[in-house]
Amino acid sequence: MGKFQVVTHPLIQHKLTILRQTSTGTKDFRELVNEIAMLLGYEISRELSLEDVEIETPITKSIQKTLSGKKLAIVPILRAGIGMVDGILSLVPAAKVGHIGMYRDEETLQPVEYLVKLPEDIDQRQIFVVDPMLATGGSAILAIDSLKKRGASAANIKFVCLVAAPEGVKALQEAHPDIDVFTAALDEKLNDHGYIVPGLGDAGDRLFGTK
Ligand code: PRP
Ligand code: URA
């Protein structure tokens, strides 16, 4: 079973509280999503593997640590996932960025895929799938189906969100028990329209200022 972790760093909780408020406008919302994504990325990247490397300082030769293992791909689920990309890129600027375009049909709440553009060597990469919201779980499940279909290995996939509903976590873990899931908050429930309660509203609309 993959890992499920609520990342409860005080800075993350503080910023998330501001993010949730209706009075937070588009500019601050955008900045906060990136800042929280960066803090989440920092916590999650604790698990990256290291190897020894010999270097020369001005004083002597020395064995030090360097990142080893697989290169990283960040895969935002469009649109709202885009809001998290720069924050994570500020930690790992050389990461490649794939895109999975998906929207929820507002009546059925089912996700509809409209774009998949991934690095060619996606099967060789560690993958952070990013989307601020995990509500019913439909979008995340379909995005990860898409990645697996294209050769991504479950052991390399981490799903990273800001706010999750228990219903979405359960659905995602049932559909993909082999991936790791990280969130900044686990909220109470979904309402009748599939929105997370208390949540933060529609993440895409608030990030981009469009409906
Ligand atoms: C939102 C959000 C997730 C999805 C979560 O996107 O960004 O992708 O809903 O809901 P789910 O877990 O029930 O699938 P939306 O479909 O509103 O598209 P957008 O990002 O283009 O606004
Ligand atoms: N998508 C959002 O943007 N917000 C929710 O609360 C649920 C799905």
TrEMBL record:
InterPro entries: PRTase-like (IPR029057), PRTase_dom (IPR000836), Upp_B (IPR034332), UPRT (IPR005765), UPRTase/APRTase (IPR050054). Uracil binds at I196, G201, D202, A203. HAMAP family: Upp_B. GO terms for biological process: UMP salvage; uracil salvage. Its cofactor is Mg(2+). SUPFAM superfamilies: PRTase-like (SSF53271). Pathway: Pyrimidine metabolism; UMP biosynthesis via salvage pathway; UMP from uracil: step 1/1. The lineage of its organism: Bacteria, Bacillati, Bacillota, Bacilli, Lactobacillales. It is an enzyme of class 2 (transferase). Keywords: Allosteric enzyme, Glycosyltransferase, GTP-binding, Magnesium, Nucleotide-binding, Transferase. Belongs to the UPRTase family. 5-phospho-alpha-D-ribose 1-diphosphate binds at R79, R104, D131, P132, M133, L134, A135, T136, G137, G138, S139, D202. This is Uracil phosphoribosyltransferase. It comes from Pseudolactococcus laudensis. It catalyses: UMP + diphosphate = 5-phospho-alpha-D-ribose 1-diphosphate + uracil. Binds 1 Mg(2+) ion per subunit. The magnesium is bound as Mg-PRPP. One of its GO terms (molecular function) is uracil phosphoribosyltransferase activity. Its EC number is 2.4.2.9. Allosterically activated by GTP. Residues 6-210 form the Phosphoribosyltransferase domain. Catalyzes the conversion of uracil and 5-phospho-alpha-D-ribose 1-diphosphate (PRPP) to UMP and diphosphate. GO terms for cellular component: cytoplasm.
